[in-house]
Amino acid sequence: MQKRIHVAVGIVINEHKQVLLAKRPEHLHQGGKWEFPGGKVEQNESVTDALIREFKEEVNLNISSTTEFMDISHDYPDKHVRLDIHLITDFNGNASGMEGQQVKWVKVQSLNEYEFPEANKPILEKLIHLSL
Ligand SMILES: Nc1nc2c([nH]c(=O)n2[C@H]2C[C@H](O)[C@@H](COP(=O)(O)OP(=O)(O)OP(=O)(O)O)O2)c(=O)[nH]1
Ligand SMILES: [Mg+2]
């Protein structure tokens, strides 16, 4: 049995009710798809700590607090993940792809125009029904 990878996923929402997406580099697992920024939670790190670290590293945003939104376990053929999804409404800085990846602010109601990893389906449904 494969070990489940604990991933912190951040949905940051700006004052225009847009959320930040980043494009996963082609060579990575689920490459070429759009994602919410985030990454693996390290040992002795909280999900919030992981998001603070990953948001700075990946998209150059400073965040300080998060709130729980959803918890999804999903088995890809090649990887088992647990997505610990948090919302972020307090942030500063201008989002930019620090690893050369495309980043984009997208209206919640337009999220269905983007291709996400399979595990993200319930996230999109919940966001769309919140009608932010
Ligand atoms: N960040 C993020 N990961 C997602 C989403 N949906 C989804 O299935 N995943 C999966 C893809 C990957 O298997 C895993 C995230 O791992 P990752 O490789 O990006 O982790 P990381 O940023 O810590 O990267 P690294 O240190 O391994 O380079 O979670 C999502 O919306 N955002
Ligand atoms: Mg990542």
- What small ligands are held by the chains? 8-OXO-2'-deoxyguanosine-5'-triphosphate, magnesium ion
What is the helix/strand order? EEEEHEEEEEH
Q: How big is the Rg?
A: 14 Å
* Strand arrangement in the largest pleated sheet: 4-1-7-6
What fold name goes in the CATH topology slot?
Answer: Nucleoside Triphosphate Pyrophosphohydrolase
Q: Describe the global form.
A: globular
> Which segments are poorly predicted (pLDDT under 50) over 5 or more consecutive residues?
none
CATH architecture identity = Alpha-Beta Complex
- Give the number of DSSP strands: 9
Overview of the molecule:
Strand 6 (67-76) and strand 7 (79-88) form a beta hairpin. The longest helix is centred in the middle third of the chain and has 13 residues, at 47-59. The chain contains two helices and nine strands. A four-stranded mixed beta sheet has the order 4-1-7-6, covered by helices on one side. Strands 3-2-9 form a three-stranded antiparallel beta sheet, with no helix packed on it. A two-stranded antiparallel sheet has the order 5-8. The chain has one domain (5-130): Nucleoside Triphosphate Pyrophosphohydrolase, CATH 3.90.79. The mean pLDDT is 96. It has 132 residues and is α+β, with helices and mostly antiparallel strands. Bound molecules: 8-OXO-2'-deoxyguanosine-5'-triphosphate and magnesium ion.
